[in-house]
Structure formats: C-alpha cells, structure tokens
Design brief:
CATH architecture of the largest domain in chain B: 2-Layer Sandwich
Number of strands of chain B: 7
Number of domains of chain A: 2
CATH superfamily of the largest domain in chain A: ANL, N-terminal domain
Helix content of chain A: 25-40%
Radius of gyration of chain B: 16 Å
Oligomer: heterodimer
Number of helices of chain B: 5
Largest interface: A-B, 18 and 21 residues
Order of helices and strands of chain B: EHEEHEHEEHEH
Structural class of chain B: alpha+beta
Radius of gyration of chain A: 23 Å
CATH topology of the largest domain in chain B: VC0802-like
CATH superfamily of the largest domain in chain B: VC0802-like
CATH architecture of the largest domain in chain A: 3-Layer(aba) Sandwich
Number of helices of chain A: 11
Shape of chain B: globular
Largest sheet of chain A: 9 strands, mixed
Strand content of chain B: 35-45%
C-alpha cells in the first residue's frame, strides 16, 4: 500500500518547499493584480506592487482578505479567470444573502482532487477500497470534493450523500464500504443507529474514516473509533480556500498536514494582524498559490490554531496545524452548517422588533447538535391569547430555519432574563465543549 | 360596559407566580378573578383586579410583559344550567369564545363569568337582549 500519494511534495525539504512557494506566490500575485480589480485596488492602497512580492518572506506586505470582502464582491468579483474557463461552482453554507460563491477551472479541480487523494492515501486508502461518501453532494464542497479525490485514487466510490441513515447502514454492510467520510457527529449517529438495527462493528468492513466540516474532540474520536471499528482521521478545509483537503491527518493523529505546495499558511494575531512565529497560537491565514479561478490571498479563516514543524513519524515534512481551538469571530458550526448569531438577529428584526434580545444555546444531545434560541418577549409580540403567541413563535421558527438552514427550537422568555455581561448581551452559550 | 383584564407573560419556571402576586400585594392590589393559560414553555396569567391601571404600571416597572384586554363580565344564576344557557345564547348569535373563566359571588345566589370574545359589541348586545346583566367596571373592581 502506498504511504504517500505524492511523495516528492509531501516529504520535500523546507528550503525546497519555500522556493516552490515563493515562485508560485509571485506568479499568483501578479495574476490577481492584473485580473481582479479588488486585489489591484487593495494592493495599490497598501502601496504594494506585484514586483515587491518576490517570495514567501514578502507575504506579510499583502493586505488580508476577509469573509466580508467575499460578500461584497458576490458573486464573481474575486474570480481571476474568464467564466468560460470556470467548470464548476460551489458555495458556502449560509443565508442566500450571505453565502459566498467560489469557482474552479479544470486545473483547480485537479489540484483539489490531488489534495483529497493525499488525505485518503494518508488514511490508508487505495484502489482496493470502497469509499462511502456521506457528505452532502451539491453546492457544499464536502461531497463532490471527496468524491473526486477518491476517484483519483481509484477507489470504488459509493456516492451516498446525506440522509436516510438506515439505508446508509445497509449500504455500508451490503456494499462492503471500507472507508467513509462524513461529519464526526454523523459518524456517531450512524454508530447509534447501527446498534438499534442490531448490527455490530463486526458485521461491517469499515476500517478508516475521514471526518471534518465541524469541530470535534479527542473523546469523540475514540468513541467513533470504538463504535465503528475504524481509525478516525481529521480532515480540514474551507470553501473559500478549496474545500476539504486543505490539511489532513496521518496515522500519528497529532495534527493535520497542510498541503503547503498549494496553500501557504500563516498564524496572525487576530487583533493586530501581526504575523506570529510558527508554534504560537493565532488566527490561521491561507494563501492559495496554485488556483486559477479563485486564488485567494491571505484569507483570514477566523479559526484559531497552532502550527507545528515537529518531525512527524509518517515522514511527511508538511507543516501540521493542530485542531482549531475556537474562532476569533462568533461563528458557530452546528451540524456542519455555519451559523452567525447576527443571522438570528436579522430574522428577529424582520419581525419588527427593533432591539431583540436573544440567545443561542447549542447542545450536543445523543451526538447530534441541537440549537435552541431564547427570545425575550416584547409587548409587540405579546397577546392575551395563547394561540396568537404560538403562531408568532412558529413564524419565527420557520423564518430562522430558512435563514440558517437548520431547525431551531424557539423559546420565548420574560424580558431582561437573558444573561447580560456588563450590559452587553451574551448571544451564544455553547455547551458542546468542543475545545478542551 | 367593558372590564379591563390584565394579561401577564409568565415563563414556566419556579417562583414566577410567587413573584408576581407578591408585587400585587406590595401595591395593595386586590384580585377579583384569575385564570392561567399554560403551554409547555410559558403561561399567560389573566387577572381582574380592583385597580387595573395601577397594577399594569407596577408590573411594567418590574419588567413584566403586560397587556390590557377589554373583556365582558356577566352575572348568571348560580344553579345547574346557568352557564349552559348563557353559552347557548352566544352560540345562537354565532359568537365564539376565545376563553372564559367564572367565579361566584360572596352574598347573592349569583355567579360571574368573564368572557373574552372576538367582537365585544356583538356579544354584549346578544347577552343584553337575552336578559343577562353586564357588569360595569365599578361593579367588578369594587366587588
């Protein structure tokens, strides 16, 4: 069984990798400066010319790109190639108004499947495997990204997508799935459903799983491994960068190797934007250096993490990022869906409430995330008849569900009862304890 | 001849009814009648009191969500069938009752019913025409 998908890149010496990155970076910066008005304007404003960026050591001179920039240039403002060359679009989860769109050229899809192929190979995947993809297929990058990577490896791909858990388990059993990818919480849900169906881990052939798209803990990893009888590998990615496969775990399970020949990683101080030395905890920033359609420069992920160049027993020299340890913004990932408290606020504002007090409470019950939204009752919402209040509550529930893309329980509470901290509302209580 | 009913939003958690009734006590407010509508998560406490405006102000000052609703109060005979006759009268006039609650008087052989209907005028007319006595606010508040 091959240990690496691309040995030269995955085991390159640091100085070789830096030389490659530097060349690719300078080319990419020149291209975006010429083709994307957004970058040209930003670089001009910062007084940086493409000629100033000769290598990775000059990266710090380039302006950051934020998620807001992507919303402002929605839908195609950040594309660096003509649309004729774009062969695929994906979009991030979120409301219609707030989603972001990314594009891929044929070469970008090759880069992406290469990244996923490396992740699958690191998890022991080969052409003799049956690959069960239960990430969603569609605009979400999870399903198609892993699908293409698995096909590149030559695995027998089973494109199950999401939903119908009983059927998923029958397929795992009958088709002989050996590798699976899905969100970690869904993996646990599968395990429980299996138990209810009277199927044990000895009845199935799964031996490896790649889990990502939401934060999970070491305890969850051990539980998944124990209940499904497989080895669980973490995989990381963002739609804005490429999708799954930006970084991936090896057998050592101590962090995710970043595909540095395609993405340059930095950690910065989220408050000052200052670049931190490798090994210091900070906000993770990525720069794409091989992508054509959507080559994002210094994208602030808002994920807080640590980088490590400690020698890895797998032989890979690619820098590792430790599991993200939270966010520098207030984004929550609930059942794989990105949720911002401000989305809930917009919904409540649309009900004519000009200063809504609300609180999102996230729990993990039986391994599935639940969202409850407490909303303080106001006189405009109140009525002496239960029916009217319940109708109002249902209207909020429906509006929230269509805005967030996930269901939430709405609980109306009395005024001034939600926690306020020094006068400021506490918008989120996350009881999942995802970060140790 | 409409009566002011106070409705208060009450979360289902220990101590709420105690807190609200204590507040009324501290403001020397006398409760004439009450009913509670409850759901899984919250309830609505509906009160007829001697000083509805004062009660409302005091509750608002204590950050309660309060509203005032105009309701009808009628007197009926405190005997078997007394309520049934009144309901029949409303049914005949095609008036639906959102909710209602009743209490008996201290002295006479009378009971009182608080009615919350969609159309107060229509209901008042139907009841008066059938000989039901609509209570005035003073009669109720000073009961």
């Amino acid at each position: 069984m091959a240990k690496y998908w691309n040995k030269p890149m995955e085991t390159a010496k640091l100085h070789e990798m830096r030389a490659l990155q530097s060349w690719r970076l300078s080319q990419t910066v020149r291209r975006v400066y010429e083709n994307v008005p957004f970058y040209r304007d930003k670089m001009d404003a910062a007084g940086v010319k493409p000629d100033d960026i000769r290598g990775t050591e000059d990266l710090y001179r380039l302006p950051f790109v934020s998620k807001q920039d992507l919303r402002d240039t929605y839908p195609y403002g950040m594309f660096a190639v003509p649309m004729e060359d774009v062969v695929r679009l994906h979009a991030s989860s979120g409301t219609t108004g707030k989603q972001i769109v990314v594009g891929y050229t044929r070469s970008d899809l090759d880069v992406w499947s290469e990244c996923c192929a490396r992740a699958l190979t690191a998890a022991g995947g080969s052409k003799s495997d049956f690959m069960h993809v239960s990430y969603g297929y569609g605009l979400f990058t999870g399903g198609l990204g892993m699908h293409d990577g698995a096909e590149k490896v030559g695995m027998t791909v089973i494109p199950v997508s999401v939903g119908n858990t009983n059927r998923q388990i029958s397929i795992i059993k009958d088709f002989g799935s050996t590798v699976i990818c899905c969100t970690p919480s869904y993996a646990l849900f599968l395990a429980e459903t299996m138990q209810e169906m009277g199927i044990t881990k000895d009845d199935i052939k799964l031996r490896a799983g790649l889990f990502g798209a939401e934060p999970w803990t070491e305890e969850m990893r051990r539980e998944i491994e124990d209940k499904l009888g497989l080895k669980a590998y973490d995989i990381y990615g963002l739609t804005e960068i490429i999708g799954p496969g930006v970084s991936f775990e090896c057998d050592e399970q101590t962090g995710m190797h970043i595909n540095e020949d395609h993405f340059i990683v930095e950690t910065i101080n989220p408050d000052t934007g200052e670049v931190l030395p490798e090994g210091e905890q900070g906000e993770i920033v990525f720069t794409c250096i091989t992508k054509e359609a959507f080559p994002i420069i210094r994208y602030r992920t808002r994920d807080i993490g640590i980088l490590s160049r400690k020698e890895c027993s797998c032989g890979r020299t690619l820098v590792k990022m430790l599991k993200p340890r939270g966010r520098s913004d207030d984004m929550l990932i609930i059942r794989g869906v990105n949720v911002f408290p401000s989305q809930v606020e917009s919904v409540l504002l649309s009900f004519g409430d000009n200063a809504p007090y609300y609180q999102l409470i996230v729990e993990r019950v039986n391994n599935l995330d639940t969202l409850e939204i407490k909303v303080e009752m106001t006189s405009s919402m109140f009525s002496d008849a239960v029916r009217n209040i319940e109708e109002h509550e249902a209207a909020i529930r429906n509006a929230v569900e269509s805005a967030l893309g996930i269901a939430a329980k709405i609980t109306l509470v009395e005024p001034k009862t939600l926690t306020r901290f020094e006068g400021k509302a506490v918008r989120v209580i996350d009881n999942r304890k995802l970060h140790d | 001849m409409l009566i002011k009913q106070i409705s208060i939003f009450v979360e289902n958690k220990p101590g709420r009814l105690s807190g609200i009734t204590k507040l009324l006590k501290d403001n020397s407010i006398d409760i004439r009648a009450l009913s509670v509508a409850d759901t899984q998560d919250f309830g609505i406490l509906r009160l007829i009191v001697n000083k509805p405006d004062l009660a409302c102000e005091a509750l608002k000052a204590a950050d309660c969500t309060v509203s005032i609703t105009n309701v009808i109060a009628i007197g009926i005979d405190d005997k078997p069938g007394g309520l049934a006759d009144a309901m029949e009268c409303l049914y005949a006039a095609n008036i639906s009752v959102e909710y209602m609650y009743a209490f008996i008087s201290k002295s006479e052989n009378q009971a009182y019913v608080i009615l919350r209907v969609e159309n107060n005028d229509k209901a008042s007319q139907a009841l008066s025409e059938n000989g039901y006595k609509l209570l005035s606010p003073e009669e109720v508040y000073d009961m």
